[in-house]
């Protein structure tokens, strides 16, 4: 049944005048009359009693008026839902993130997205980079927030955030009063690191920083979380190289110093499968870029932070 027939019927029922109803519908009166006749033919019942001077609903017409209005309301509701889906305003999205991002971009991305798209179901999954890449390949994840050095060639990636590496020192350390240190100054210190299986590329990056300074770090203890690493530093077990945003974890017994060496930054990037692009994904990516552009050095109580949206990640070959 055509919705135009229903609209014409409802308008005539409300106006009880074919001429006024035709004007309200912006169609010719004969066309309006044909709409009503076609509808009556499909239903097999007269909807109006009409003569030269009066138009009135029949009993069947009064009953069907409520139904016609409900149908039109449902059609309009469906149209609005489709339009919102086209704009990415309804649906669901699964977002993977590295635990380290809880201290920098993750809260801002999630907060802004929930404000802009309250009717999209957002599913959050804390996962290391390797697990996120596997989940993206298996369609268990829509978008990830990872250390992007090894983005596979079949995934699209974009660097959205950069921050310096800092060193966490016990407050009794000889360098505790220094604002900036060189990695080479830490050659004799015991190091605290996370297990390599939690992030081989991050682990290798930290080892590489030490190797570039001319030494292999003496790793005396591993911790599975940034909080754990900071706690071990406070206990005097050793020093730890960490993203600058972790310096927001203020606690007694720990001080932070910037690394003076050039090119000592860590990157975070969005990654997704371009073959599964949807309006919801597009909305999420745009919002994440916006959130990252809004960050600056004052958002963290440690070293300066640089953000960059739209930087393409070269695919691994």
From TrEMBL:
This is Transcriptional regulator, LysR family. GO terms for cellular component: protein-DNA complex. It comes from the Bacteria. One of its GO terms (molecular function) is DNA-binding transcription factor activity. Signal peptide: none annotated. Belongs to the LysR transcriptional regulatory family. The keyword Transcription applies. The lineage of its organism: Bacteria, Bacillati, Actinomycetota, Rubrobacteria, Rubrobacterales. Residues 1-58 form the HTH lysR-type domain. PANTHER family: HCA OPERON TRANSCRIPTIONAL ACTIVATOR HCAR (PTHR30346:SF0), TRANSCRIPTIONAL DUAL REGULATOR HCAR-RELATED (PTHR30346). Keywords: DNA-binding, Transcription, Transcription regulation.
